[in-house]
Amino acid sequence: MSLEILTFSFMHRALISGVAIAILCSVIGLFLVLRRYSLFGDAIAHSSFGGIALGLMAGVYPLWTAYGVSLVSALIITKIKEKYDISGDAAIAVLLSSGIAVGLVIVGISGGFTIDIFSFLFGSILLVSVNETILILSLTGIILIVVLLLYRQLLYSTFNEEQAKVSGVPVEKINYLIVFMAGLTVVTSIQLVGVLLISALFVIPNVTAIMYGRGFKSTAILSISFSIFSVVTGILISYIFDITPAGTIVLLSIGLFAGTMGIKSMGLLSKN
Amino acid sequence: MLSVVEIEHLTVQYPDVKALDDVSFTVKKGDFLGIIGPNGAGKSTLFASMLGLHTRYKGTIKFFGKDIRKSKDYLKEIGYVPQKPIFEKNFPATVNDVVRMGLRKESDANKVDEILQQLWIHELSKKRIGELSGGQQQRVFIAKALVNNPKLLILDEPVTGIDQQSIDLFYSILRELNSKQKITIIWSSHDLDAVNQLANHVACLNRTLFFHGESDEFFENDELVKQYSEASMQEHMHHH
Predict the structure, then answer these.
(1) What's the pLDDT tens digit per position in A210-250?
(2) For residues B35 and B43, is the Cβ–Cβ distance under 8 A?
(3) Which residues of chain B have a CB within 8 Å of the CB of A160?
(4) pTM of the shown model
(5) Which residues on A lie below 8 Å from B100 (Cβ)?
(6) Among A57, A157, A211, A249, which residue carries the largest CB count within 10 Å?
């Protein structure tokens, strides 16, 4: 039984997509966490719920409308933060509830489609299609290439905006780029863990990795490893025991987080 | 002698206060200019304007003969060390990561090791920046500022909250950068004795420029020295 599942093509697609999403969420999430933007993923995910409902109602592939709505929301959060004297977390809270509210109203008006909505709320990685897998891999590839090319600018403007500006980094553009990439990442990841648990993938592997006291690249690699471990193990366990993958994946990453805290509190994590 | 910085009639008006009022001065190649003045004298506004962080000013700021409103290219020639660099304490960046952030060309990566050695922080290169003492962090930020071979170094009161031994080391580094490597330095400081020892030019700023000239000239003027040492004493008391 346990080895047999590795021969199913739906399982291949699930694992390949899952690993791609794990890498993507860790990398983008690290920048968000360090910018104190941990809940940004949540806000985008919730607002994309409105987009999903819109797509289902209009009979369009729901993730396309979700991509549109999430990018617009990402821009709105950034603009609000820039133009008005509203803190980032408040802007996030406003958008988070608006997205769900819009989604619920649309669901109400259309009188249903609850089954579809459920798969977006909690993810459906085992149902991911060949086309969706290709889309996930392409987006992951593109975003990772952009991150590698602009690595120094992304890191520098995250570390200290003012100094980055003085060093000639186009900080405003970089800020927009990060939220734009985060928007794409969130919608891409909805298929893995769903709207409700996205921020777990963005945040938990990264805060776990940061505790190890390493430099930036090692922290990113640790975070990616934790994330891949949780996703792959989570998908397999959930299939074997017939439980929800999203919940299993998130619980595994929380397990790694708790374990790391335990190791750290026993003083076993050397400060380099 | 080539002018590195020319500031003409710089005025900055904030809604409630005039932060800088008709400030004009020139910094020539090889100068080591100490800018002194009490808190709220406009030093930070002056630096922010010079670094392109504050653009709503009247007057002209020229670097290497060019108006900074026209091109930001001058920033390539400048290393900037902020007063107290703000970053997350557990930011996962090592000393090496931080210094490399300053690199404009990845091809200059071998320069990083050289500078870390020069500033006595080579052994710390794998430590996280947040684990270092204030004095060590300051040297890291100087290293970052130096990594692109700047022609001009701008330092904003960079000894606040740092132990005496680190301050002495820092001063000897500045002296060497100016005298041996011929880097022009603009440095705002509270410490009149240090300015006396290090700087060859002095500017006294308090919204407007009260004095600008050779440091000998300043330190021979007892009235000015007294006034500014009192101002700097008061400032120290504010700090503590």
Answers:
(1) 999 899 999 999 999 999 999 999 999 999 999 989 999 99
(2) yes
(3) 85-87
(4) 0.88
(5) 152
(6) A249
